């Protein structure tokens, strides 16, 4: 529910609103059609209205926060009356759940076929009897996780078909596009709904989250708050039958560049592999956590970028130090599984001793040489093929800037943008330690 409308009519009762506003539906004595009848009447009450042939009934709970409930029902009447209701029958039924000190209330509007048309939700603080905004309960990461889950579950369900793989879908499901989502918490978990327009059609998207995950995403001054994990899971849907590429970033993390890369990648539901230098991880704990909590992959580019084929290089230190740093930052909640040797240089000794698969690349953007976002864009879009591992450097700002155009271009060219591990798994490649991989073509 949008805040402004919600408070605008908060002091009026539902009935008063219906009688006062001209052009609104007239309450008439009419026979309740079959689909609008409900046994819930015993526990709650019903309001109904009729415009020409259109009829709607709203059931609401009677035994709880009366003013809050009336504000919501009046908002619903107002909203329904603006819909094109000609010859329609709409039933709006409620669900409520108490979790001290909050009342979570949700109204589902369905048509005669039982199709969910709209969801209206609200949260009430039962101590102050005031409406509570979701923003005041949840942290920023909540919206990031909802964005990922909404995309994951929409793709997994197949309801949007190809539309779920377009830049339009991603741009309308970013964390910032979800600020007006409808939200309902009950004993089974969290449900979120967002109405949006895709390919000129209005669609109602939804996702479910487990309660435990939701609680870790609350602000830590909340009564419902439970201790959080440093690293929370973010799922990413990969369709093994669609084309895909891996974007890889070397030589970071660099706070400003890497954070911008994450933001742009998240906008387009893209997951990347960051081959990090250990000494930079030590200086950027927050960035390392942000990379993980956006669902990206952290891999090793050694501690301080030596040539692994040189005799003086301490191989075991270069192999193990990054994992030690990552364990320290995440309290043991994340691990490294891939190594990219600096300069792509390795020899027999490295192959025999590496505790990780060696990841090279099949598309070198030469971004470090051109230092030009447009040149990087052109290089990628001219050469990209299904199964490519694309080499970029988040050390350089223009490389990250190029993502602004590269990401929507790749997406609308049909590519999923996935981590190296996701791509290898999707293509059935079982990576072995000490073996080098530079691409994952479809067989
Ligand atoms: Zn490097």
Features:
443 residues, alpha/beta, Heat Shock Protein 90, TIM Barrel, 6-stranded parallel beta sheet, 17 strands, 23% strand, disordered N terminus, binds zinc ion
Which helices and strands occur, and which strands form pairs?
Blueprint: H1 3-8, H2 14-20, E1 44-51, E2 54-61, H3 66-82, E3 89-99, E4 102-110, E5 116-125, E6 130-132, H4 140-157, H5 167-171, E7 182-186, E8 189-198, E9 201-209, H6 211-216, E10 244-250, H7 255-267, E11 273-276, H8 278-283, H9 285-293, E12 297-300, H10 315-330, H11 348-353, E13 358-359, E14 363-364, H12 367-370, H13 373-383, E15 389-393, H14 397-401, H15 403-412, E16 416-418, H16 420-426, E17 436-437
Parallel strand pairs: 2-3, 10-11, 10-15, 10-16, 11-12, 13-17, 14-15
Antiparallel strand pairs: 1-2, 3-4, 4-5, 5-6, 7-8, 8-9
Helix pairs in contact: 2-3, 13-15
Zinc ion (ZN) binds at residues 250-251, 301, 305, 342.
Question: In a few lines, what is going on in this structure?
Answer:
The chain has helices at residues 3-8, 14-20, 66-82, 140-157, 167-171, 211-216, 255-267, 278-283, 285-293, 315-330, 348-353, 367-370, 373-383, 397-401, 403-412, 420-426, and strands spanning 44-51, 54-61, 89-99, 102-110, 116-125, 130-132, 182-186, 189-198, 201-209, 244-250, 273-276, 297-300, 358-359, 363-364, 389-393, 416-418, 436-437. With 443 residues, the protein is α/β, with parallel strands linked by helices.
